[in-house]
């Protein structure tokens, strides 16, 4: 593998959830690449499919989910790996910091034990050694009095501390790739900044897929950003380019809805993913849609160096 | 899943069949259940499909007539239970505060007294007929459903549409009847079916223990008499087994029905956060 | 903090017990006819007035009601639960004796049903929708719907009568008259009752465990565990099970509470001389003091079991501290 071959390459990913009303197509032909040491931010609102994408990479979705496509990690297609092989990848090669820190830790096990479990599993350390390593990790994520906190239960941790603990857990085995799903959701501004700082510090040199709805957080951490809407990537490119000169109308609308920029919301709501519109999925809410947009489904078109947008305006 | 619908219809069919039998007993039973109609303890034959018991009564006819007692015990009891439980539950949950507290405290105490033993003691003293027995079971059993209904009502009472209706000036009684009641009906419906099943089993169990109404043909009493008269030792299977089988089948049908309904009411799908 | 909570709980339970006693007194005294007459009707068809009067006097019925209430209440607290008409012994004595025999079959059945219920309920819930789960669930619904007395009867018929594998009833064979009570013999007699009681209670435990596991399986921390790379069975054992078992504490309490109800049919059918059988006998002869005592005992067991569960719960669930009525 060459130095700048992508670490992770998602090709044509389609995820569908069968429900009583039909299949929810949460992800539609997603193509994504992430290089070694690179942080890619995945931006989008709730329901855009960003968490699904993150979960799909580690195959953590429900068993009856329909997944098509390829997810190549270091050249191997994760979707075709047998369970035992996948288990070796999880935690060791690719780790995830889940959304919702309040419920992501087992309430009846001590925090230190939960971290030590991962260490024992992948690094082979046992008993006291694993515990010591866990304490060290808690220290690295700047939890005060890590030895004592390791013996505590999750409900004793504050929101920010739980987030740190989850980060520690994810980094326990020094994975090459980290998926972080909304690590700062629900935290106050001060804590948020601390966590983001910590995050960038501990992940130097690591590939990160940073899933968020927070544009500022994305701007501060990522080198590249991908914007998702209704299950599709509608814009992707270097973070400066996308955020200062957004190509897609949705991205533009997103930026304008920020408090700092005037807080103008985008009218309308996201389409149903069971029966999405045939043409451009953003068309119903787009202020500059043309007839073509309604019928033809746009592909990703280059609008700048490394900058692509899925819009008829550029086709 | 095809299985669920068939279970629903099949069980409903069985229940309706039992009701039909109960209603048409005088017509379809070959003999009067209390009349001497042949030799005692006779095994099944052409005239007596299930033989006769120790008092020379036709068992088959008794089996058919016994359906009535079962239906009364189950459904009357369930009606009383559900009406009481729902009324109290709605009032407690809707008004909240002191009323709710009082009801909960009362329940806490009443629930420490075990249902069945209390029922036994009451039965032995009052020696009630099946109608009164059904009512007593309903009252005692209804206490249990108050909690469940109340918790649903609690969340409904603060729901926007209720608050809105209140703001429009609607009276409490109106709100409770028109807005809250329909929303708890599914829960109430399931409770009705499970209560009916429970009361049938308990009511017949009372008969089995000798606490039944001697004026009525009751499957429990049949089993009791069968075992008392050497049913087990003498292997009088035609007397011993059919009543028990009859109870079991209706009980199963009601249980299936309740389960099938419950599955429909409870959305079990976990929503994946996207 | 803990002591205060404990005290409060005890006080509350005491009040509940007191109210139960009062309710029972009210129900049983303020009624048409009285229990003495009722009992005597079982012996004589028309009891001669001197006999009735003698009984009434011996049992204090001819005293004013308030008097009766207080002496009854105080008696309860002192351990005098009345005098059994049919056994001619203090009620509490009779009950205690028989309670032991009930425990002989009840404890093994309860322990077994809890272990089995947890094991298959957990597996069923974890592998929801699988063939095993569907089969187990349907089986349990079926089992649960069968009336207890009929199930017991069928078991007796099939295993004891037709197959002759186990004795038809009682707790010892006739040979005990000569050789004394042989534990193996008792075990032989207890086998079917234990099995039947086991079948009754395992369904409830199974349901509860399965539901609990269904909820636990959907929790976020299970996803975390999978994300760590743990395999399915390990996650079930180490993460899911502990959480799903928390409601079991309450379940065990409830089961103790339902002790009498469960045993009455089994003991009657298998002629096992425990408290259930006692209840049946007392019902037949209308021995009200005894019945009253049994009802009180059952209530007491319910109260104790509930307090016990409340006390134990904080030790199993680290989130709940004593004093928090946060029990699910």
UniProtKB/TrEMBL annotation, chain B:
GO terms for cellular component: plasma membrane. Coiled coil: none annotated. The keyword Nuclease does not apply. Keywords: Cell membrane, Membrane, Transmembrane, Transmembrane helix, Transport. It is a multi-pass membrane protein. The chain crosses the membrane at residues 7-29, 71-94, 106-124, 130-149, 184-209, 236-259. It is found in: Cell membrane. One of its GO terms (biological process) is transmembrane transport. Pfam families: BPD_transp_1. Residues 67-258 form the ABC transmembrane type-1 domain. The keyword Transmembrane helix applies. PROSITE patterns: ABC_TM1 (PS50928). It comes from the Archaea. Belongs to the binding-protein-dependent transport system permease family. This is Peptide/nickel transport system permease protein. It comes from Methanoculleus bourgensis (strain ATCC 43281 / DSM 3045 / OCM 15 / MS2). The lineage of its organism: Archaea, Methanobacteriati, Methanobacteriota, Stenosarchaea group, Methanomicrobia.
